Amino acid sequence: MMSVGVSTEPCHVRWELETDATVLQRRQKQIDYGKRTPGYQCFLQQVPKAQRQPGLHPQTPNKNRRYSRRSWDAQIRKWRRALHSWDPPSQPLQVEGCGMDNLLEPTNSTPLDDWLQALEPSENQDED
Predict the structure, then answer these.
(1) In contact, 87 and 34? CB cutoff 8 Å
(2) How far lies 77's CA from each of 3, 16, 59, 85, 122, in Å?
(3) Which DSSP state fits 90?
(4) Which of 48, 34, 79 is nearest to 61 (CA)?
(5) Is residue 117 packed enough to be buried (19+ CB in 10 Å), middle (13-18) or exposed (0-12)?
(6) Total Cβ atoms within 10 A of residue 42
(7) Contact indicator for 35, 27 with CB cutoff of 8 Å
C-alpha cells in the first residue's frame, strides 16, 4: 500500500507564522530596500497588480511566514535579482577627462617615477 501526504487544510493554515519582532523588522527592512530600487519602480509602472503572474513576475517574499535564515536570504536574493530585469536602461557616465582617448595618450612619467620623486628630499629644504 502506498501512502500519499495530502492534507485537506488550506496551505496558509499549515504555515507557521514568524513571531520574532527582530526577525520581522529585519525582513521588512530588506523588503523596503528592494522596493526603493529603480527596477521595482519601473515594475510598478509597467505591470498592474491585476496582471501579475507568479513565476513570470517578481513576487515579494512573505515576511510573516516562518523560514530558516538561509531560506529567507535566498528568497530575497532571488527577488532582488528578478527586479534587476526591470531596471531602466543606464546612461553612460560622462566625466570630463575620463574618456578612453585620455587613456591612450602617452605620458612622460610612470607611477614608479612619481613615487620615487616623492621620496627625494625637496630642494627648498635648508641643508645643515
Answers:
(1) no
(2) 36, 22, 12, 13, 55
(3) P
(4) 79
(5) exposed
(6) 15
(7) no
What residue type is assigned to position 10 of the chain? P
Looking at the DSSP bridge assignments, the partners of residue 17 are: 65
Per-residue pLDDT of the chain (128 residues; tens, 9 = 90+): 544 444 455 555 578 999 999 999 999 999 999 999 999 999 999 999 999 999 899 999 999 999 999 999 999 999 999 999 999 887 554 545 444 444 445 556 555 566 566 666 655 555 55
In 13-67 the beta strands, taken as DSSP E runs, fall at none
Q: Which pTM value belongs to this model?
A: 0.60
Dihedral angle over CA of 32, 73, 52, 91, nearest 10:
60
Nearest C-alpha neighbor of 26 from the set 81, 60, 79, 69: 69
What are the counts of helices (DSSP H) followed by strands (DSSP E) for the chain? 6, 0
